[in-house]
Amino acid sequence: MSVRKASDRKTAVIVNRVLWLVFGLQALASVFVDLPYNWWLGWLPALGAIAITVALARADRRRFAGGTREPVVTEAPVTGRWSALNSPTDRVPSHGTHQYGQTYAIDIVAEPEEGIRPAFAWLWPIARRSQDFPAFDAPLLAVADATVVRADDSRRDHLSRNSLLALLYLLLIESAVRALGGAGWVTGNHLVLDLGDGTYAMYAHLRHGSLEVRVGDRVRAGQQVARCGNSGNSTEPHVHFQLMDGPDVDTARGIPFRWRNIGVPANGESFTAAEQTLPSRTRQLPS
User: Fold this and answer.
1) Among 93-107, 116-130, 273-287, which is the least confidently predicted range?
2) Residues 205, 240: contact at Cβ < 8 Å?
3) Which of 51, 143, 222, 279 is the most buried (most CB within 10 A)?
């Protein structure tokens, strides 16, 4: 995407959020006071936001009409036994949208050797602590030699949303609020690595305060960069990983990937990522 088109898209995304915010605020205000204009005028921000959303969706379809790049082969971002959710092997876009550059994104959850991962609860418990899930605090590794271009671990880890009531809350309330807040509220704590050749790797939902790198650092494949958490728009501690063609998730286009010796696991498929052997020099390279 050209710089001009990326700038135009970024502007459209911001205007879209502002329009939804204005609509929501006036809807809330109307509960307590009479608005000083006809009721139908209050719908104009929502109609404008819907129009922008439709236009952005059409632009995304045009962007993908010409085909896609060949998958980029990287190392896996984890070690040990994991299983896949929302995999691009099963459908594209994997998360139901091209938004936030997540066309080929994948979610993975840790599968413990002993015990089980807490299952979805229809009634109780409504929520669990992040520490109850085996993925929480799992080390995350650089998938290639790269440069850190974005790094944020300031947001808290919240309770799980893997019960019926909590999931309804996430879908009906929390997700909408996070979407208004912007990409950072959706991805939570996140890290973006520049792999070179116009390819960027993004890790989302990192643990609060777990980043071991900062913007400008050079990292080597297999180097620990952060830990898995449950921040942002997340139902339980898991790793959200994707490749994209730019560092800004508001304007980037997703890129397909393959993990070396693993491929792209399908939904529900378990896989084991072997521990990577780092070169003798494992500390950050100077910028």
Assistant:
1) 273-287
2) yes
3) 143
The pLDDT tens digits of the residues spanning 194-231 come to 999 999 999 999 999 999 999 999 999 999 999 999 99
Number of residues written out for the chain: 287
The residues that bridge with 84 in the sheet, in sequence order, are: 108, 267
Regarding beta strands 239-244 and 106-110, do their DSSP bridges make them parallel or antiparallel, or are they unpaired? antiparallel
DSSP string, 154-185: -SPP-----BHHHHHHIIIIIHHHHHHH-HHH
Q: How far apart are CA 152 and CA 210, in angstroms?
A: 9
d(CA 106, CA 95): 8
Residue identified by tokens 């002993």 is 114
- Give residues with Cβ within 8 angstroms of 99, minimum separation 6: 56, 60
Q: 3-state DSSP helix/strand/coil percent for the chain, to nearest 5?
A: 30, 25, 45
Give kind and range of the element (H or E) at residue 6: helix 3-32
Q: Which residue type does 34 have?
A: D
pLDDT tens-digit profile of 39-48?
667 777 778 8
Listed range (49-53, 61-65, 82-86, 105-109) with the worst mean pLDDT: 61-65
* Structure-token pair, residue 102: 């997540």
Please list, in sequence order, all residues whose beta carbon lies within 8 angstroms of the beta carbon of residue 270, skipping any fewer than 6 positions away.
81, 82, 83, 111
Name the amino acid, one letter, at 67. G
Res 134 pLDDT > 50: yes
Q: What is the pLDDT of residues 167-198, one digit of tens each?
A: 787 777 777 778 777 777 888 999 999 999 99
Whether 272 contacts 76, CB under 8 Å: no
Report which DSSP code applies to 4.
Answer: H
Question: Which segment of 55-69, 140-154, 172-186 scores lowest on mean pLDDT?
Answer: 55-69
User: What is the pairing mode between strands 257-259 and 146-152?
Assistant: unpaired
- Reference 77, options 197, 192, 216; nearest CA is 192
